[in-house]
């Protein structure tokens, strides 16, 4: 099964992750968003956890900007922070607000274990490793949502807005930019044959671990009662 | 219920963690170690995961040495790394070896999600925060094992060695040293009234989160089949 | 001598830095910018080094975003990264371009030792310490340029544009925002009496060291031939 | 001119650094240690600054332990921390004590700018980059002192002890271990052809910059009056 064309590294890492990638992008939670069968309570639980997630995810992109080697890399990473803080997070605030969850309640969300595990893994990968380790750990979320968005494009029902956001031109453009950033960063540091270096295995493992943590996030979001 | 005297901060953080501290130190897994009812399979599963845990835990103590402000702090933190790498981990290797798990198998242990969540939380607390954040996140493991060891002292049965190790004079001395390190680091940075500063809440939260992750670790270790 | 009102911490840190603060803000290089006596060659040398400086300085602000504890802190830090990358650095490119130094030449500038010393000190303060250590090390540059700008306001001559930029409403507003960020971050973590804690001495030392590194930067920029 | 055989990477990086490597290892300060013409005042100034240097250098090796990918890498890095804190630094304390500088005075040494620049560069390279960046920045000090020690072996006069320490079997063994650590870390991550990857240029630049900072350290140590 072929995925979207978000670049060479994404194609390789996605293929190398095998069934876990399918389990993530075709998770029951995702199917529930698509056909509208997801209980609203689960959706709101997800949105609240995702808000907490995005705070740490934006921190991780900021760390990427700190670890960039070129001005272009820094600009791309900081543009993503900007988009998360000024576009994606306000959307969450707005959607939650429609459902009676105000910003204070949203910010007071207790972080679920599966949420904490994921974001700390990504941040620690970045701190202990380098720019590439961080990008490999960030990729499954950014690009996986792009792939899910494309698959759910045109969904009607209660979650049509969610589907439209990630299927939309803006988000898809972001995915292409991030894919280009990753391919450029790999080429710049490791050359065109990077996939044959031992380093490639570490990066593949980062991508695969983050994918499994995405599955854990959907599992957590699907659970009836938040911890 | 009063705990061991590992210093002022430990007493406060332990009390502030409430029921979660009891759930951690009196976990069914711990009771199984005490009365010998823990299945050997679970024990070996635990030892293997704990080996992976200790690698990252030693890395976190090394990070503490890097973030120390004084030579004494650095010496204390690096002595702990040394003890972990040259004493505690070889013990695991030896015990596992007796049960037919060789070093290669031990090192190839796939990291369970609850294991990963804990160690990355601790490391990230240290990288994003300062020396105090790191110590508060490290404390529940080091000092909780000391408290458990004291309670399980004199246990006979299949896990007598485990109990004797953490009840033993060497490990208890380490707990007192770590408690002293923490109290000294707090005093040096925040003064004698540190517990009344807003900073104290963050540190309490670090300790409490790490305690909950300890519970998750016992839960994971108790599960029949490792993921 | 009283300085601009960029907040409480700035006032205290500035006073606590004593003569070094005066040496920085009244450096011969600054006087040369004011009265136009600075040789153009020195100015261009400075601009090139400052461009390299700003890359690392933006990385340090990105690190601040990664280390922030609240969304507001993160938004403030990332807005500064954005301003540096998308406003201040393009201005340098434009000014240098007018004087025959193209972007490629600008980016190929070899980093002078006094430049490297300063930026690595700031970044390392942030990595090894916490958000407060980083802000204390970042403050002398941001706020010192604000103070210098105010003093040089209305200067005519060849460096009128430089003076107008830092005296201007936009830059002065940034200084007030950064001052507010610092005061809020201190209050949030250490409470209203933070200046009486031992921690205050470390932060004062961070500010004073960064101030001395600013003097070293002007010294380096004043030297006739770049190393 | 051929250097000591501390491994493949050292040979390449040393050659790639060219004249700067000669300027470092044959600095006037080194010649003064060799023939005894170095004023005692300069030597004591150097020892005091080197003590401050070693604190941060030990922190950098601790960071290397935190960033290690294998237990063997971690053990090697933490053994170096241990040697620095428990062997090399006590030697400085002892030598200074003979000359009337007690430990309190030693620890109160104000850090010279050239000292600060060097250690912060190394630490920041490690934090922003990965294990390899850190090792490349650490190598010139460890291995350069080994090369200098070999060249100064057998020197008599007032600095015979200094020469004997770095020429000695213990220190030379450490150099071989560090060289092996570096070669192994490169091979493990980048494969046998690492020197042909773009990554090699970054690492070469790290080594060369640290070498230039060593020259700056000797210059600082040679200056008649410490700042």
Describe this protein's structure.
Four copies of one chain form a homotetramer. With 227 residues, chain A is mainly alpha-helical. Chain A has one domain (8-32, 39-222): Heme oxygenase-like (Heme Oxygenase, Chain A, Up-down Bundle). Chain A has eleven helices and no strands. Chain A has helices at residues 8-17, 19-25, 28-35, 40-67, 71-98, 103-107, 113-128, 131-151, 160-167, 169-190, 198-222. Chain A starts with 7 loop residues before the first helix and ends in a 5-residue tail after the last helix. The relative contact order of chain A is 0.19. At the A-B interface, helix 7 and helix 11 of A face helix 7 and helix 11 of B.
Layout of secondary structure:
The structure is a homotetramer of 227-residue chains.
Chain A lengths: L7 H10 L1 H7 L2 H8 L4 H28 L3 H28 L4 H5 L5 H16 L2 H21 L8 H8 L1 H22 L7 H25 L5
- What's the overall average pLDDT of chain A, rounded? 95
Name given to the CATH homologous superfamily of chain A = Heme oxygenase-like
Oligomeric state of this protein? homotetramer
Main structural class of chain A: mainly alpha
Supply the CATH architecture of chain A: Up-down Bundle
CATH topology of chain A: Heme Oxygenase, Chain A
Features of this protein?
homotetramer, 227 residues, 0% strand, Haem_Oase-like_multi-hlx (chains A, B, C, D), Thiaminase-2/PQQC (chains A, B, C, D), TenA family protein (chains A, B, C, D), Thiamine_Salvage_TenA (chains A, B, C, D)
């Amino acid at each position: 099964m072929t995925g979207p064309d978000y670049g060479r590294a994404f194609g390789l890492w996605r293929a190398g992750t095998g069934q876990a990638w399918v389990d993530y992008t075709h998770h029951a939670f995702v199917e529930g968003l698509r056909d509208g069968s997801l209980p609203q309570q689960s959706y709101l639980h997800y949105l609240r956890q995702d808000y907490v997630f995005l705070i740490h995810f934006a921190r991780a992109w900021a760390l990427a900007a700190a670890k960039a080697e070129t001005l272009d890399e820094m600009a791309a990473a900081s543009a993503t922070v900007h988009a998360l803080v000024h576009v994606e997070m306000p959307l969450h605030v707005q959607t939650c607000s429609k459902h009676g969850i105000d910003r204070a309640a949203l910010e007071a969300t207790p972080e679920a274990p599966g949420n904490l595990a994921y974001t700390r893994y990504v941040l620690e990968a970045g701190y202990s490793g380098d720019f590439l380790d961080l990008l490999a750990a960030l990729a499954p979320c950014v690009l996986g949502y792009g792939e899910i968005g494309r698959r759910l494009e045109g969904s009607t029902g209660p979650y049509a807005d969610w589907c439209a956001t990630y299927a939309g031109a803006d988000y898809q453009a972001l995915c292409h930019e991030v894919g280009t950033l990753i391919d450029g960063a790999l080429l710049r540091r490791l050359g065109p044959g990077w996939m044959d270096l031992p380093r490639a295995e570490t990066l593949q493992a980062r991508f695969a671990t983050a994918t499994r943590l995405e599955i854990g996030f959907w599992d957590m979001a699907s659970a009836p009662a938040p911890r």
